[in-house]
Design a protein that fits this description.
Helices cover 26% and strands 23% of the residues. It is α/β, with parallel strands linked by helices and 347 residues long. The protein folds into two domains: 202 residues, Quinone Oxidoreductase, Chain A, domain 1; 134 residues, NAD(P)-binding Rossmann-like Domain (Rossmann fold). It comes from Kitasatospora nipponensis. It holds the Pfam family ADH_N.
Length: 347
């Protein structure tokens, strides 16, 4: 089969690799019908995730069709159309028993495209199929379902839910890429009074406005004073969601949050950020981090099926699976290409 393989910082190939096989009774092999590229994949290619070794097939998001299952798989079967979650869950360890699947100690967690071969291929082996694959209803398209593999549960769980977004809150989302836009979409479910989006790219700010942001600011416009002036008493935002993964965006969040407010870090950081405790210690600020658990995926899938979750506009570029290298080039230069999420489909 063909697959996108990592060969060290800055090096990737789309080439022939062996087809995946069942290795454990709980495995399934899935034909990849739709797949996407994540900002985390770009971090891997920059060398920010040293656990990823040369020869690894990248990717952790896909929609596909089950081809084979191990003898222990009970809930999916050959021919089922499924969502391949970015998180695998053994279902038995202490963390899985509390739905904290991202921290699974039984061989799961974020392993696809990280510790084992991933989804940017014609076929993928998925461990723990019963607890890591989600059957898809006929009314949900491959493209829409693909957004539930990572960005929607990540933005919702690590950003909106950990940030404690509530009715009447003022929320700032720093970064209007796919994660930031998904955070706008899911934050709106809680009726905040105002959502402010910050990004350097005009095209992404326009997308943020379409997604439901009430105010959009360029990075130059988003001074601490300007952001605070948009809040109800000028003291800062209730919730600041960091959706980039660079020190400047995290530090901006900590400066504009109000006393008693919450900073929810979603971005993947490859460099240290300064935590100014000399300013924050007295402000009763809560800072959260996290890896998505995907415990919300069934809920989000129900909402998507019912038409209660608007994902239109998040995918801007579409390719055939064989155009993987071109898709990477477009996504890696998202600003110049006005790219948000790219999707690749079996043709």
């Amino acid at each position: 089969m063909k697959a996108l393989t990592y060969h060290g910082p800055g090096r990737r190939t789309w080439d022939d690799v062996p087809d995946p096989v069942i290795q454990d009774a709980e495995d399934a092999v899935v034909r990849v019908d739709a797949v996407t590229i994540c900002g985390t994949d770009l971090h891997i290619l920059k060398g920010d995730v040293p656990e990823v070794t040369a020869g690894r097939i990248l990717g952790h998001e896909a929609v596909g069709t089950v081809l084979r299952t191990g003898a222990g798989v009970r809930t999916v079967t050959e021919g089922d159309r499924v969502l391949v979650s970015c998180i695998s869950a053994c279902g038995r360890c202490t963390y899985c028993r509390t739905a904290t699947y991202g921290q699974c100690t039984g061989g799961g967690g974020w392993i696809l495209g990280h510790l084992i071969d991933g989804t940017q291929a014609e076929y993928v082996r998925t461990p723990f199929a019963d607890t890591s694959l989600h059957k898809l209803p006929d009314g949900v398209s491959d493209e829409s379902a693909l957004l539930l593999a990572d960005i929607l549960p990540t933005s919702y769980e690590v950003g909106v839910r950990k940030g404690g977004v509530g009715p009447g809150d003022t929320v700032v989302i720093v970064g209007a890429g796919p994660i930031g836009l998904a955070a706008i979409t899911t934050a709106r479910l809680y009726s905040p009074a105002r959502i402010i989006a910050i990004d350097p790219a005009t095209s992404r700010l326009n997308a943020a406005g379409r997604a439901g942001a009430d105010v959009v600011l360029t990075v130059a416009e988003a001074t601490d004073e300007a952001v605070r002036a948009l809040t109800r008493d000028g003291r800062g935002v209730d919730v600041a969601i960091e959706a980039v993964g660079v020190p400047e965006s995290f530090e901006l969040c900590t400066r504009v949050v109000r006393p008693g407010g919450r900073v929810a870090n979603v971005g993947v950081h490859g460099k240290p950020a300064t935590l100014h405790l000399e300013d924050l210690w007295i402000k009763d600020v809560t800072i959260t981090t996290g890896l998505v658990d995907t415990s919300s995926t069934p809920l989000l899938l129900d909402m998507l099926t019912a038409g209660r979750l608007d994902v239109a506009g998040l995918v801007t570029h579409r390719f055939g699976l064989h155009e993987m290298q071109e898709a990477y080039d477009v996504f890696a230069d998202a600003g110049a290409n006005e790219a948000l999420k790219v999707a690749l489909f079996r043709t």
